[in-house]
Here is the input.
Amino acid sequence: MTKTLCVVVVLCVFATNLFAQTETALPILTSKPVVGYTPFVKPVSDCQCFKTDSPSKKQRPVFSLDIPLSPSWNTVREDRIKNHTIQFGGSATLWDKTIGSKGWPIPRVVFASPDLRMSVEGGVIKTSDANFSRKMTQINFALDKNLWFVLIGTNGFFGHEQIPRIINGVNFDADFRRRSIGGQGWLGVKFGDFNRNFIAGRYGRGYIRTDGKIRFVVPSIVEELDWFSEYLEEFKTESISVEGKVKAKWISQSVRADWVKYNRVVPSPDPLRFGENRLEDVWLRTETEVMPFKHLGIVVVLTKDFQDQNRLMFINDYSSARVFIRLAF
Here is the structure.
């Protein structure tokens, strides 16, 4: 009986309201909600059926540790050092000699977010071949940051190499050492995401300094002799690079082309005797990443040179084919 009475009261109030609106032909604005339906209708803004999770437009940052398998290096041939032509450029004789390293592999560290990318590689490397051994300490780093479509960045390197007993004489031997340092800054454009698909172009300028020294080792002299300079060269650099990347579900492919021009700060009076004043490097580098698992995959890096690898005058380079095990977090 009570329920029936409540229903009748609600219907009466609802009918009275409707009749009043029909008679006046003007809407009646009330500050209170209508008793007849307000308790039973949920506001549209609170309805969960209209809520959708907006997908993230950018991927989270990725930290990668690349461990090389059977690392090998391209470095200067020993005859270029013995003949004192290491600073002459690639036109003198062949530059490179591929040698393997021994000891612990040196990993490559890469951090990439949609608009920022950093990489560091290098370390202490020991190599050996049939005649002599080398000890190299070097580091390479690169940084890219884009603001809207504008890309700014820098890269640099430091290298130190020492080869004991590179020259064997009758009454003496000689050790060789070279040190190099350089870097550049660039400005360019970038469209896309470093972790997904992107294309970028850069123009950069920089500076490189390299010097080589010799120390004679005489068995009759117990104390070590001082190092004396064999060459000291400074270069201004100019570079252009174009890079792109395409990423699928578990595989990605990136391609980068680099052109670098080296100009001596102090031109040599005779290029045949003291080395060329202008050198160039052109190379194409591809990187294929296969990630069948979330945190584990393989990276293959291939490099094709179209010039004389004149960068070997300053620092040792990785071989033309490299394979990494990638740990991504």
Notes: The chain has two domains: 2-50, 62-328. The helical segments are 2-24, 78-82, 271-274. Residues 2-50 form one domain.
